[in-house]
Amino acid sequence: MNILEQEFIKGFIRMCSDGFAQGWHERNGGNLTYRMKDEEVKYVQSVFSYHRSWEDIGTEVPELANEYFLATGSGKYFRNVELDPEANIGIVEIDKTGTKYRVVWGLIHEAVPTSELPTHLMNHAIKKMVTDNQHRVIYHCHSTNVIALTFVLPLKDEIFTRELWEMATECPVVFPAGVGVVPWMVPGGREIAVATSKLMKDYDVAIWAHHGIFCSGSDFDTTFG
Ligand code: 2HA
Ligand code: ZN
């Protein structure tokens, strides 16, 4: 079994490359996580190693206890994911309390998962619940034009929703629930995670003012789309 040949890993890596090609991942900008299916965990578990220590997530996600996530690494560049997956992405296991994680594959040389892990996991937790276990992908990118809009428009859900719906006829079909807007907040912690996951109850898209977008979806294609 070659873990890099698995469909979920190939789809994850392709999405990183596609995002970079859009110009949405300058330097180490952006991050991606995927909630693995039980059968995927079972299939690749033979290559996991359990020597790394449990670390604090920085928030609580009891809904995700004992789940496994594929995640981009903190400080890692999307450009490099396809060139060296094991150095730039990894699989983390959540403990039985939903407060700690440990790296079980990849993220070699003691690398750690994305600094936005609290937001990713709190979004996964709420989406797992409200989509009846369907959503598995959370994606954060620095989508240039949307960031520019946050310097121009009032930072309100209904204003961004209307402007984006008006930009292209397909938009109301693709995100009929609209989009939410998080005002400027310090990234990388629990506070912004709580604010974002609140919006994810109602929306699949949360815009971070002057920063980027968070998206949720059932698979890589839908989320990226
Ligand atoms: O550097 O995008 O929000 C990764 C990020 C932090
Ligand atoms: Zn960011």
Defining traits:
globular; nine-stranded mixed sheet; L-fuculose-1-phosphate Aldolase; binds Dihydroxyacetone; alpha+beta
In terms of topology, how is this protein built?
Blueprint: H1 7-21, E1 31-35, H2 38-44, E2 55-56, E3 68-72, H3 78-81, H4 85-88, E4 89-94, E5 100-106, H5 117-130, E6 137-141, H6 144-149, H7 157-167, H8 171-174, E7 180-182, H9 190-200, E8 205-208, E9 212-217, H10 220-224
Parallel strand pairs: 7-8
Antiparallel strand pairs: 1-3, 1-6, 2-5, 3-4, 4-5, 6-9, 8-9
Helix pairs in contact: 5-9
Dihydroxyacetone is lined by residues 28-31, 115-116, 140, 187.
* Physical arrangement of strands within the biggest beta sheet: 2-5-4-3-1-6-9-8-7
Overall pLDDT: 98
The proportion of residues in beta strands is 15-25%
Total helices: the number is: 10
Annotation, overall tally of beta strands: 9
What gap, in angstroms, lies between the N and C termini?
A: 30 Å
* CATH fold descriptor: L-fuculose-1-phosphate Aldolase
List cofactors, ions and other ligands. Answer: Dihydroxyacetone, zinc ion
Can you summarize the main beta sheet?
9 strands, mixed
The CATH superfamily label reads Class II aldolase/adducin N-terminal domain
CATH architecture: 3-Layer(aba) Sandwich
H/E series? HEHEEHHEEHEHHHEHEEH
Q: Would you identify the regions where 5 or more consecutive residues have pLDDT less than 50?
A: none
As an assembly, this protein is: single chain
Structural class estimated from helices and strands: alpha+beta
Radius of gyration: 17 Å
Shape: globular
Count of distinct structural domains: 1
Portion in helices: 25-40%
The first-level CATH class is given as Alpha Beta
